[in-house]
Amino acid sequence: MSIVLLTFVLATLLTVATPGPTSLLAFSNGARHGLRDAGFGIAGAVLSDLVLIAAVSAGLGVLLSTSQPLFSAVKWLGVAYLAYIGLRLLLSKAAPAATATIVHVTERRRLFSRSFLVAVTNPKGYLFFTALLPQFIDPTTPVLPQYLLLAVIFSLIDLVVLLAYAAAGKRCAGRFGSKLIARMDRLCGGVFLALAGGLAMLRRAGA
Asked: Where does the chain have alpha helices with state H?
């Protein structure tokens, strides 16, 4: 592995290991539904990584950083969705530990779409990748294969880390029961509302 890729791996590990919206959802889903069903949410988060990187490679990140109307539209969409998820978690009722892993198909779809939309409606993701990825791209060689490689590396690391968060959530719920699930939902709901507030205050660079 080249020093460039090694540096990217380390930067990715530092980024995805830091608690954020998708990792909090993975932990909450693992506690409430178990590892297998939490995997649907993780799949949505990993797909969002690929979508964000594809969008940035196509120039959407640069467009967001230069277009105030587009930036505002994505930002307020993200604020609304984060606030919605936060309120849902705050108002949710914890299932008994024995039945917490029984999830219907519609619920699995919701787990998938929730984690996916949390990422793709947040302009910070586009701006982050816009700032990060070009540092590891050699413009003298074809850039598409390089973006593909970085996307695969980032997604695989994110997958492993989110699985660890979900497994930790499942273990905590198994040890402490439904009371912990209720408390974690309240905590995660409060964090999501705080994230929505922080995103609402975000300003485009140079605005």
From this structure: 3-17, 21-33, 35-57, 60-66, 68-91, 105-120, 123-132, 143-176, 178-200
